[in-house]
Amino acid sequence: MNTETDEAKWQAVVQKDQAADGTFYYSVKTTGVYCRPSCATTRPALRKNVAFHDSPEEAEKAGFRACRRCAPKGPTLAEEHAAAVAKACRAIETAEEPPALDILAKTAGMSSYHFHRVFKAITGLTPKAYAVAHRARRVREELAKGGTVTEAIYESGFNSNGRFYAKSAETLGMTPTRFRKGGTGTTIRFAVAEGSLGSVLVAASDQGVCAISLGDDPDALVRELQDRFPKAELIGGDEEFERTVAQVIGFIEAPKTGLDLPLDVRGTAFQQKVWQALREIPAGSTVSYADVAQRIGAPKAVRAVAQACAANSLAVAIPCHRVVRNDGNLSGYRWGVQRKSALLEREAVG
Catalytic residue numbers? Predict the structure, then answer.
């Protein structure tokens, strides 16, 4: 809620809007007390007795004392939640075994149910999913150090090989041994074609299309692919693969035709959730980053949603170009804002 006017501030007080906490404070002439907008006072004040202040100091200078119920000089509820979740994240990251939900909740001073909801709203993940994602990241870091796969798995907090291998392909996009060797033993077919938006690189593993990149320099697109998989066997696409490339080019030129291809999507649990939400946005429609955050059940994770969009390596197949700022502006796009604008124009017409 925009609280720039007194009327908007009054509405925030009437609605006890927690989102307005910290943006202003209000005082009540008949009680001599000032509060946060969300104060759960049992008897609402009359509008004529209410004044607004930019800070606790301003309210006190005007002769009002702090409300004991909402403690306006202390941290807001949102700040308390953020601090509790940050503490829980540190506990998860430093523990040999992920702490149980009830232990994390007790430390945060919340019920298990409430803590679970608060944690997911702020991070975009449940505590369990956060622990899995963190350990998977540690596996990637340990594998890069060059030790054995078993050492990497145990150093990352997995207490058995089986538990990790059950999720390894989803987490790494390949077996741990191949990941450690930069993709050694992995065959990736690729081809570069030209379309109205410039050069288009399409690459695929045995699992499906793993990269769709747009650019002005075909050689730069190929070098980027080589950097992602430095030891994979990159081979030019055959006639069958050329048909896959043609499908991608056709979709770029005429988005309403759709793109039904198997995808090899590699990312964290949170990124996967965001990317799945993007694939559900119809052609011709746009949503905001905040809308996506709401759809995945993490309304406060807007920045993390934007980062997941930026990390997408499958242009058009995962349509991050359909996500815009709250004011409708296009903002950034990994492959250029002009291409983003062109894609949206085609979808709107198509």
Answer: 35, 320
